[in-house]
């Protein structure tokens, strides 16, 4: 787990899976792949195998070590619902999230069909947990809007959208049963542009629908220069978080031993 994440909408990242594969235009300039591939072939580095997908079971118990509540982005360097991640491993990840309930978890996928199927079956306990937020990535109308509809079909308490990178005008979006929307432009070499009117339209629709709105960045080749203000202000809204008591260190250690990480 990485504390003090630089991602504006979370506190920490937790990666019990590493690596992924591209499935839609939003993946073209994947920041996680770019980072991981820098270390391919470096002996002993966490990304010695680059962005090849692999399970990291030794990371499963990390949230139980954290004694203060955090918002935790689950698999910032992968997709929990990638087809090469076994169901049993996904269930193990969900079990940790359910037990370590003093944190808030943000689970994001581009594969909502598998997520929806598991949330209705093997992950029903996690689906009912208000401290686990489930989201989908949205980059355009063709790929993103069907993901929103699929997310809406999941039986969860908090649903969110990561509209990043926003690659085109999405038009009128149905934000019904969505609790949170994050919007951001692409950054880094080859960043595709995002127009102000696209962002304003989505902000206005969120406000009309009563959906928490978070504007992450304008992006671009030098994102530090473009900043994250929209019409002269920042937008840092979140859904309401649940608050569970934090067990003492001895209890957390005991919980960690009780969970099978095989």
Describe the protein's architecture and organization:
This protein is of the alpha/beta class and 262 residues long. It is built from 8 helices and 9 strands. The strands form 2 sheets. Strands 1-4-5-6-7-8-9 form a 7-stranded parallel beta sheet. It has a two-stranded antiparallel ribbon with strand order 2-3. The two termini are 19 Å apart. The model has no long low-confidence stretch (mean pLDDT 95).
Spatially, the strands of the biggest sheet line up as 1-4-5-6-7-8-9
User: How many strands, what sense, and barrel or not for the largest sheet?
Assistant: 7 strands, parallel
* Strand tally: 9
Distance between the termini: 19 Å
Number of helices: 8
Strand-and-helix sequence, N→C?
Answer: EEHEEHEHHEHEEHEHH
Low-confidence stretches: none
What's the rounded overall pLDDT mean?
95
What is the multimeric organization of the chains shown?
A: single chain
**Cα-based radius of gyration, to the nearest Å:** 18 Å
Q: Strand fraction band?
A: 15-25%
Helix content: 25-40%
Shape: globular
- Helical/strand content category: alpha/beta
Describe this protein with a few key phrases.
262 residues; alpha/beta; seven-stranded parallel sheet; two-stranded antiparallel ribbon; 8 helices
Ordered list of secondary-structure elements with their pairings:
Blueprint: E1 12-14, E2 17-18, H1 31-37, E3 54-55, E4 71-74, H2 87-99, E5 104-109, H3 112-119, H4 124-127, E6 132-137, H5 141-152, E7 158-163, E8 180-184, H6 196-209, E9 212-217, H7 223-226, H8 249-258
Parallel strand pairs: 1-4, 4-5, 5-6, 6-7, 7-8, 8-9
Antiparallel strand pairs: 2-3
């Amino acid at each position: 787990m990485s504390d003090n994440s630089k991602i504006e909408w979370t506190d920490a990242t937790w990666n019990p899976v590493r690596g992924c594969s591209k499935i839609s235009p939003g993946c073209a300039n994947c920041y996680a792949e770019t980072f991981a591939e820098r270390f391919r072939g470096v002996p002993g580095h966490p990304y010695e195998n680059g962005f090849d997908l692999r399970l990291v079971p030794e990371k499963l118990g990390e949230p139980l070590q954290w004694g203060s509540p955090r918002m935790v982005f689950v698999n910032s360097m992968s997709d929990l619902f990638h087809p090469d991640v076994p169901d049993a491993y996904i269930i193990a990840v969900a079990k940790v999230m359910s037990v370590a309930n003093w944190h808030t978890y943000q689970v994001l996928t581009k594969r909502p069909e598998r997520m929806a199927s598991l949330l209705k079956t093997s992950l029903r306990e996690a689906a009912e947990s208000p401290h686990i937020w489930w989201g989908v990535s949205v980059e355009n109308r063709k790929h993103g809007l069907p993901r929103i509809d699929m997310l809406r079909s999941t039986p969860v308490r908090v649903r969110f959208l990561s509209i990043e990178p926003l690659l085109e005008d999405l038009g009128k979006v149905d934000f019904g049963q969505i609790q949170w929307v994050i919007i951001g432009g692409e950054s880094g070499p080859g960043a595709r542009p995002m127009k102000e009117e696209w962002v304003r339209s989505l902000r206005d629709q969120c406000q009309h629908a009563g959906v928490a709105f978070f504007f992450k960045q304008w992006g671009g080749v030098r994102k530090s220069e473009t900043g994250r203000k929209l019409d002269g202000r920042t937008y840092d809204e979140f859904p309401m978080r649940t608050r569970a008591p934090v067990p003492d260190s001895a209890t957390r250690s005991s919980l960690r031993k009780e969970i099978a990480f095989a």
